[in-house]
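#dry-run=false #mode=assembly
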Amino acid sequence: MINKQKIRKLAYIAAQEDVIPKDIEQYVLNYLGKQELKAFLSFYKNALNKKRVYVSTSSGISKESLKALKDQYKVKEIIEITDETLGAGIKLREDDMIVDFTFKKYINDTIEKLKN
Amino acid sequence: MEIFEQFGFDFKLFAAQIVNFLVIAFIFKKFLYKPILTTLQKRNDAIKKGLKDAENAAKALEKAEETRDEILNKAGKESERIITEAKQQAEESREKIISDTRAEIERMMAQTKEQIALERDEFRKEARDLSLEMSKQILENAITGLFEKKDQEALVKKGIQKIKNDKQTKN
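#status=ok
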């Protein structure tokens, strides 16, 4: 049995690389039980979210804008997501914080205001 | 005296007859007159008593009739009073029931109106929300491909600038 603290540390180390290192992968698959594996994945996802910034736009992001974002989030990896339903604008998720400047959000906010 | 003798009057016989008469009168008085008198007196008393009783009975009857009339009179008045009171109470009850029923109907009507108004508002809100939700769906479908590339880029840049400003404000 491995305690949660060690699982968290292992997940943090694994998240530092682009892909999970082979030795960690082997260890996790061979020695962790179902619950421990679940905990590992949860910690791994959190660790990835901490080092990544997810940027959603409706039609991709230009190099210029990407550079501006990289300057903004120097140490973090920027993951681009294309979602046509956003209409226009940009949505950014950093860890558990979401900044939404999309047309879809504008429409939703306007509709909610009208409802109330 | 001779004259008496001429008519055959005998003093001795006369005296004996007087004595006989007296004896018989005494016997009559002693043994017949008193019991007859007592019987008569008793009968007289009985008749008097009977008459008195009849008189008393007549008086009692008269009194009973008076009492009966009085009772009937009283009963009539009492029954009239009871009937009047009952009528009055019934009238009051009827008026109260009508008044209460009217109040209840008015209350129910007010409640129903209120309920209808609430349901109407609720329905309006639901209809409005539904139309807004449909509008949202339509808009969300319509915005795909609505903006030109340059407009999209301009909005992205604007968004990045806002994010930058927000971060600077936080720091």
